[in-house]
Amino acid sequence: MTDTIKHHLNDAILMAYSAGTLPEAFNLMVAAHLSLCDSCRAQAESFDALGGALLEQSADTEMDNNSFANTMDLIAGGDIDVTMPAAKTTPGVLPKPIQDYVGGDLDSIKWKPIGMGVKQAILPTSKDATARLLLIPAGTAMPDHGHKGTEMTMVLKGAFQDDDGYFARGDVEIADSDLHHTPVADIHEDCICLAVADAPLEFDRLLPKIAQRFLRI
Amino acid sequence: SSEPSKRMLWVSHMTRIRDDQDRAAFAELFDHFAPRVKGFLIKSGADSTLAEECTQDVMATLWHKSHQFDPSRASVATWIFTIARNRKIDLLRRNRRPEPEDLTWGPEAEPDQAEVLGLQQESEILVSALAALPPAQRELIEKAYFGDLTHSEIAAQTGLPLGTIKSRIRLALDRLRHAMK
Ligand SMILES: [Zn+2]
Ligand SMILES: [Zn+2]
Predict the structure, then answer these.
(1) Among B23, B42, B130, whose Cβ lies nearest the Cβ of A61?
(2) Out of A84, A136, A157, A179, which residue is the most buried by the measure of CB atoms under 10 Å away?
(3) Which CATH code of 3.30.360.10, 1.10.10.10, 2.20.70.10, 3.40.50.2000 fits the domain covering B132-181?
(4) Across the interface, do B144 and A15 touch by the CB < 8 Å criterion?
C-alpha cells in the first residue's frame, strides 16, 4: 500500500463499481487501483454501505409460496459456489487482479510491438470496453490523441507526464472527451500502464484509421 | 431508537447461523431481506421467475458463507447487498467483476465488540441520512444502484440533462458525507 498516490478514481466510477454497472475492463481498473490505494478502498466500502442502506429501505416484493422451503433445500444441497479458486499469485509489480488476467507477473506478459518502441498486450475482457497493458520506452511520447468515451490509465511501473500532471505507480488519469493529450514516459525508466477505454482513442496523426482498427487501439 | 438494537440482532443472527446452523435465525433474516433482494433484482431488469431463483441463491450463499461476514466492516444489509450485486452481475450482465487484492471478507479473529457496535451505528446514520435526502436526489442514487443504469442511460430515461444528473448525485453524496461526520 502506498500513500504516495496523487491521482485517484472519482465518485462516479467508484459508485458504478459498487453498483455493478461497469464494463469488465473498468472493473479490472478499479480492482487494480484499490489493490494499491487505501483511501479509494475505504471510499469503495462506503459505496457498498450505501448500496446496503438502499437495500434496507427498499420496498418488499412478494416471494413465491415455497420460497423459504426451496432455499432450505438449496442449502441442504451444499455450497453451490463453483467459482474456481483464484490462481496462486506472488506479490509482484502487477496487482493481483491484473496477474489473474496475465497469468503471472511482468515476465508473463505477451507484448506485441505497435510502433515507436511502444508495446501492448490486450487483456481478455468483455467487448463493451477494452483493457490493455502498455509499455512506453523511457522518454518516449505516445501519439497525440483525444477521446470519444472514457479512458483510464494507471501507472504500474515508471511514470508519465502530460498536461494534467505527473503520474507514477498507482496514479490514475481519467480522460474523457474534454482531454486531448500527449503522455510522455519519464526519462528514467520504461513506463508500464494499464489502460482501459470504452471507445476507441482518436489519434490526430501518425496512426491512420486503418492501423488503428488493425491494432485495436 | 430500537433500530440499532435491531441491527445488532441481525449481527447475532449471523453468528447463530455460522456457529449453530440456526434455522430460526435464518428464517427471520430471510423474511426481512429476501423480499428486498428480489425487489432489487426486478428493478435491475430480472423477470419475476429469475429474480425469485436468484434471491434463493443469494440467501443460500448467506448461509454457506456466514463465516465470511465481518460485522466490524459491514452491516448485514451491506453484506447481503454485495452478494446480490455479484449474483446480478453473473446472471444479468454476464460480466466479470474482479475484486481487489487481499480483500478477504472474514475476520481472522472474533472482531472487537466496540468496533462492531460503532460500525453498526454508522450504518444506522447512513440509512437515516439517505431517507432524509430530497426525493429528486434520492431517486437518482436509487436508479444508479438498482436500475442498472449508467449516468447517460439515466439521462435518456428521465430526459434530464447529464450535467443535472451528475450534480444531483454529487449533492446527494455531499449531504450523506456531511451526515456521516
Ligand atoms: Zn485512490
Ligand atoms: Zn489518452
Answers:
(1) B42
(2) A136
(3) 1.10.10.10
(4) yes
